[in-house]
Amino acid sequence: MFDIGFAEILLIGVVALIVLGPEKLPTAVRAVGLWIGRAKRAVSSIQSEISEELRLDEMRRTASIKKEELDKELSEMKQPFKQAFSEDSPMAQSVESPVTEPIDTSDKASSGKIEKPANE
Questions:
Q1: What ranges in 1-120 are assigned the alpha helix state H?
Q2: Number of domains composing the chain
Q3: Residue 74 · residue 81 · CB < 8 Å
Q4: Has residue 112 been placed in a domain?
Q5: Residue 119 falls inside a structural domain
Q6: What per-residue string of b and e applies to 72-89 under the rule 16 or more CB within 10 Å gives b?
Q7: Region (Disordered) spans which residues (predicted)?
Q8: pTM higher than the cut 0.70
């Protein structure tokens, strides 16, 4: 982060000792340490939020691409059915032609007799 060596830290400590004195120096060092800790935590939380947003954005982009691919495949799969059931095709005409006479396959209709229940 910062390019501060041992000599620079020692020089800052000596100047702080001279300016603040031996009585106020420990509280000042503690306060500076707390500020640095808060700054590090703030930077860390901002970095994690940014990385989370980037991850979510990438997921949205991937989902969008996959959705477009699936929509394209679906439209390609629908094409043969659209062509088969177009108005000009014989398959569509056979489906559209009405049945003139209903077909009854039950035994009662073929014999012509309606049986009464045995209890009556």
A1: 6-84, 90-96, 107-111
A2: 1
A3: no
A4: no
A5: no
A6: eeeeeeeeeeeeeeeeee
A7: 68-120
A8: no
